[in-house]
Write a structure and sequence with these properties.
The chain has 326 residues and is an alpha/beta fold. It has nine helices and 16 strands.
Amino acid sequence: MKILVTGGAGYVGATVTRLLLDAGHHVEIVDDLSRNDHRQIPTGATFHELRVQDVARVLTPGSGFDAVLHFAGLIAAGESMAHPHWHWDNNTAASLVLLDAIREAEVPRLVFSSTAAVYGEPDEVPITETAATNPVNTYGDTKLAVDRAIASITRAGDTLGAISLRYFNVAGAHRCLDGSMIGERHSPETHLIPLALQAAAGEREKFSLFGTDYPTQDGTCVRDYIHVTDLAQAHLLALAAIELGEHRIYNLGNGRGFSNRQVVDAVREVTGLDFEIEVAPRRPGDPAVLFASSELAQRELGWKPEHVDIAEIVADAWAFLQQQPC
């Protein structure tokens, strides 16, 4: 297939692109590199340095694309509360432009990178796809708006089929066939595991633990960490499962929760290094507990996470950091 990947220089987008190329697909990437690193662009993909708002330069009528996988967007929940207009523009407005270009170019398949943040503070865990959507931050609001737009557009006819994949916390690093690795290179970095590893490596003076008064066993947030390779494999399965005129949603997670303190302990165990921890106030918009039920994806897509141990996930992220220092 001929596939367009938006955000293909990013952590998840680059990993999925690598798997698509390994499977024999022709892949083109659109990424403006405002938050991503050009070193992550997989060899073999055609690269266009463009904003998603300008995607119509590539996604033209007659261009022959069979599918779009849409990863481009801002991901930091805390930032979304401080600068909501950035997220509405990059996540929602740009996605609507993309959907219009998909229609004009008659692309029949779309896989959308959604998020567990659409659920907000869940009534029950593990979270299923039927759980109420009630985001507690702007990031979740913007992604939910795109999910709803996709559902509306697919219902209107039988020319487009789509699947939204709602991620929980993505972590680890992908080991490519040539021995190289794809890992987290966010700028700025906001994710717990790479921040803790950077502190262990001495690349940060200290590690900030945001909130120790949550209603959890040890007072810190509990999250579901899914290995990036497992997550990427789900996208290829989703691509093969799309039906025209349908929009389906699947949660993707490990199926179990780890607290922030448990993750910090795993970082110390894997690295053998200690580091200073600063207790900081809660970040606005951070729910106490989020972890997934991925039973629907396992049943309908045939997907199952293989890397479920937090120490293994941390070890791969640590190997990437050592291979590619900040």
